[in-house]
Amino acid sequence: MQKRPIDWPILLALVAGVLLAVMTDWNSQLARHSSPLFASWAAHGIGAVASLLLVLLLSLKGQATTIGMPHQRWPLWSYLGGIPGAFSVLLAAITVNSALGLAGTLALLLVGQMALGVCADYFGFFRLPRRQPHPRETIGFALVLVGSMVIILARS
To answer: Which run of H or E residues covers position 16?
Structure first.
């Protein structure tokens, strides 16, 4: 039998999902003992320090690379990327400590991300090429939405 190669993008996406759940849980615990705003600042501060250390480490090893971009200015809206991230961390810290809990919060985060992804593809947000959603994507979105509703409604 032939050994199947590892599909790295899928594996890395799964690891990122696990890390998101762990980060959301730890951040909500910090918010429970302080405030959601402090927890958000702490998460972003730790992330900034970790990123800086990683860049320094890679540049010392000579492995740091730059992304080749055409000589044009970045659009002004591209500098606002951290604002939704800050609000998502802040709001997740609040909602995990509510009746939704971690599972309900993550389920709704996933539904929101999928809904924005479908809209961004369909309407061409963020300079993406416009495209119609495939039936598989629509069915997948509907299943995630129903599953999220089951997670949330089963709590009561």
So the answer is: helix 8-33
